[in-house]
Specification:
240 residues, alpha+beta, NADH Oxidase, 11 helices, 4 strands, Nitroreductase, FMN, NADPH-flavin oxidoreductase, NADP
Length: 240
Amino acid sequence: MNNVIETMLAHRSIRKFTQQPISSEQLETILRAGLAASSSSLLQVVSVIRVTDNDKRATLAELAGQQAYVQSAAEFLVFCIDYQRHVELNPEVQADFTELTLIGAIDAGIMAQNCLLAAESMGLGGVYIGGLRNRAAEVDQLLQLPQYCAVLFGMCLGHPDQTPEIKPRLPLSVVLHENHYQPLDRAQVEKYDQTMLEYYGKRSSNQKQGTWSEQVTSKLAGESRPHILPYLHSKGLAKR
């Protein structure tokens, strides 16, 4: 096992940071690592908004669901699908295909993960902020995003002021299928549910109760940001 894999396997979300800043050299390295990520057909359809204005940070923390670390982290980055530059290059660009929206979301996720891995390799930490999509249109307006550019998620980065336990993941035997889709192994899921119960019981902060199965099926039983499709349509994306 090498240092890269060790860093990956040691991942945990950091939501409490010291006041120590991230140096400009570190931030540039992090962003260059992000730019080096794979890009479908080299379309490069991601833009990143670095938010340094404290008032905007405070507003974003509120819009994301009162997530205070959006304001307290050393850096806050917002990842966006961006076809605006392509439309400016050629007004004939048809950016409204759903496939292109998927490409933008996938590329942004890959780029962001490169950024986070680079940060963690430096001893920094971070957490994704999908809560920006709770009030996507307001975030969009605050950041003055143009047409064909839509907010996806944020990322806090900073020097960790906590060492949370690593959260267990589903066993590989449940996630990995060979040659064709395999039926769900409920025994493995039940074993994982027990593992998560024990994890939550021992976790030093943010205590939860209930199994993984109970949590995810409860979450998926209700609406999941139904305003997102109209928002994307308003940006000229995912229309067909």
